[in-house]
Model the fold of this input.
Amino acid sequence: MTRFSGSNFRTALQPRSVAKYAFQLAIIGIGYFALANATSALAAFYSSAIPVWPASGVALAGVLVCGLRVWPAILVAAFAAALPAGFPDAGAADSAT
Done:
């Protein structure tokens, strides 16, 4: 006996469910990316620390509503939002001492 019964497995692979899943990933990813960039831009204007990260609220809502299967969208959006910040320079840290 397999884990998936025949009818449930065929239902899960229907094109409509794939399109719905791709739409969910796109909405959550775009929402996370937009809020992360907006919050980063707000942090550039005001030098105080931001106590709330609204993008994490979008991620949490997406996981609670759609389940853990939306984690790829959150991962890609978080990575893409962090790219403009650049990578820390290890040489600058060494020369500061």
